Structure formats: structure tokens, C-alpha cells
Amino acid sequence: MTEPAKTGVLIVDDEAPARSILKEFISEQNGVRILAECANGFEAVKAAGELQPDVVFLDIDMPKLDGFEVAQLIDPAIAVVFVTAYDQYALRAFEVHAVDYVLKPFRRERLEEALRRARERAGHTAAPDPAALPPLPSLPPAPAHPSSHPDPNHCSSATADRQPKAPPRSHAHLYSHPPSPRSNPPTPWPARAA
Questions:
Q1: Domains along the chain with CATH numbers
Q2: Burial, 38: exposed, middle or buried (Cβ in 10 Å; 0-12, 13-18, 19+)?
């Protein structure tokens, strides 16, 4: 049996400490591999094109190209998680279909949630173990035919119990408008002189 493919991650941030924290966190996760780290938007676009990551953790405020420009230039199949110190870009981040928006300083729980969402978007989540799922509740058997239901008030498909429908209404009044007292009748175009 082959090992499932690992989720490829690209880390993009112009601040080395932020890249280090992300790298440390992501390297601890199972089924994930870091493909590259980039310090600016140009490097990110180049790395994303060459390495084809599944997920990119992307800062917004960077030199050369900002995070939104990078998100527009990379393959839309790549799940983007914005990681930034600025909360004012959150709405715009979701307008460009970001998977998540994590504020600095990072909290482990938020990074875990963001990575989980990104892996789901990228299609790299493990199927749940059927043995670990709770059993389905048992339902009473359905009656063989609607008329055999024990409750006489039960809805059935029999037409005898149906009330007659009202005749269809004409909607002609919606389309015919009486002339306005202010409007002038249309005047024909003058005949063209030969």
C-alpha cells in the first residue's frame, strides 16, 4: 500500500521570525511537507509556479508584490491562508477566496484550524475511520403503501381527499396599462420626400 501524498506548503513572509514560527509549526504536522520559504511576492509567484504547492501561508504587507497580488498571480487551485498583523484586510481576503485569515501573533490553535481548512480545500484530508463513527439510529419500517398507514389523517397521494383548486387567475391586468392623461399619443414619422 502506498503512503498518501503529503500536503505541499509554501511559506511567504518578509519577516524572518514569522517564517520561522510558521516553519516550526508546520514541520510538526503529520502529512505536511514544506516546499519552500519566500521573503517577497516575486519569489512566491516563482516558487508557486515551479513547485505547485497545495497550500500557501501568505503575508499581505510585503515589498515588491503584496499578498493580494501574489494570490491573483498563482494557480487558483492553491489554497491560500493569509497570515498578517493587520485585521483590516480580512474582508478583501475572503473576496479573493482565501481559505483562512490568521492574525499575528500566531496562536497554535488558529494555525491548526487554518491548516485543516486548507488541507480540506486541497483535498488532502484523511477519510474518517468507519469503526470510529457512531452507529446510525434505527428507523421504523415504512408502510408498504400510503393507504395502509394506521393514522387516517396521514397525508396520502389519493386524489379523493384533495380540495379543488381555484381556477387560474388571468394576469392580463399586469401587462395592459391605460394611457396616462399626461401622455401624448405617438405621432407617426413624417413621410419621406422623394
A1: 7-122 (3.40.50.2300)
A2: buried
Quote the CA–CA distance of 55 and 36 in Å, as a whole number: 11
Residue 69 pLDDT exceeds 60: yes
Alpha helices in the chain (DSSP H): 16-27, 41-51, 67-73, 90-95, 108-122, 172-175
% of the chain surpassing 90 pLDDT? 52
pTM, whole model, 2 decimals? Answer: 0.62
Rounded distance between C-alpha atoms, residue 126 and residue 3, angstroms? 12
3-state helix, strand, coil in the chain (%, to 5): 35, 15, 55
**For 105, how many CA atoms within 13 A lie in the half-sphere containing its CB?**
1
Q: What is the mean pLDDT of the chain?
A: 79
DSSP 117-159: HHHHHHT--PPPPGGGSPPPPP-PPPPSSGGG-S-TTS--S-S
Q: What is the mean pLDDT of residues 66-72?
A: 95
pLDDT at 19 over 70: yes
Answer with the residue of higher pLDDT: 189 or 75: 75
